[in-house]
Design a protein that fits this description.
14 helices; mainly alpha
């Protein structure tokens, strides 16, 4: 089947908009029903899947504007904008909503994660602190704050949080992965390998975790074993470059929800 052109994607999106409008609130045949925020989100997500990012961004923005007090809509709209590469727009949208709803945990969590991705970890940390003050046992906020601390170069503080989260979820591969990377960045390659070794022989682990395990193996002088583990995933040159970057304390793209 031929790949849809931009025009075809636009027509498909327009057809979907019409279908959703027809399934919305009752209207008269001569006066089409306007899309509600939930329908706009669905249209945006469908447009995103077809690669029509212009329509997706427009729908996410309109959905957020149409339901300013619905945190679920705001989170989905901001997350969609972020996926579309509109990180600053997503951040600004949530900043405005958090001003109106300063204690909403879903808004705070999503805003904090976006601050990490736009390179503002210090601001993200303060937002995660607000979440943890209200819910100190929140594992997600604990791990995400640790990621932000790692980006700040505060590895010891990050590792303390990873271990706190790991005590509550000892089999979570994401927590183990992030702890191992933090240990490697702080000059502890053997400890990093120990943190991730329980997943070395596992069949069902994310590719990202396997790549990081390979980097850690290489950092421990086990380059051949790392290349066998990563066969088909990275080239030897890429493995060497990533290993050197992490050993120099330069973090990769953070593993955030």
């Amino acid at each position: 089947m031929a790949k849809p052109t931009g025009v075809a994607r636009g027509l498909a999106t327009a057809a979907l908009c019409a279908w959703l409008a027809a399934c919305g609130r009752p209207g008269t045949p001569s006066q089409p029903t306007e899309l509600n925020p939930e329908s706009r989100l669905r249209v945006g997500e469908a447009a995103e899947r077809t690669g029509d990012m212009e329509t997706a961004i427009s729908m996410y923005t309109a959905a957020a504007d149409g339901a300013p007090d619905d945190s679920a809509v705001q989170v989905r709209a901001a997350s969609g904008l972020a996926r579309a590469g509109k990180w600053n727009q997503a951040r600004d949208l949530l900043v405005a909503r958090v001003k109106a709803h300063p204690k909403d945990p879903d808004l705070l969590r999503t805003l904090a994660a976006i601050y990490v991705m736009v390179g503002q970890p210090r601001t993200a940390i303060s937002r995660f602190d607000e979440l943890l003050a209200a819910a100190p046992a929140d594992i997600g906020a604990t791990v995400d704050k640790a990621v932000a601390l790692d980006l700040q170069g505060q590895h010891a503080e990050a590792q303390a949080l990873y271990r706190r989260a790991q005590a509550r979820a000892p089999q979570d591969p994401v927590i183990a992965n992030n702890l191992a990377l933090s240990l490697l960045m702080s000059g502890q390659p053997q400890e990093a390998l120990a943190a991730l070794s329980q997943f070395a022989e596992a069949d069902e682990v994310p590719d990202r975790l396997k790549i990081n395990l390979g980097i850690i193996l290489a950092a421990n002088g086990q380059r051949d074993r790392a290349l066998r583990l990563l066969e088909g995933r990275v080239t030897p040159a890429d493995l060497d470059a990533m290993t050197q970057a992490l050993r120099s304390g330069r973090p990769p793209i953070p593993n955030t929800p």
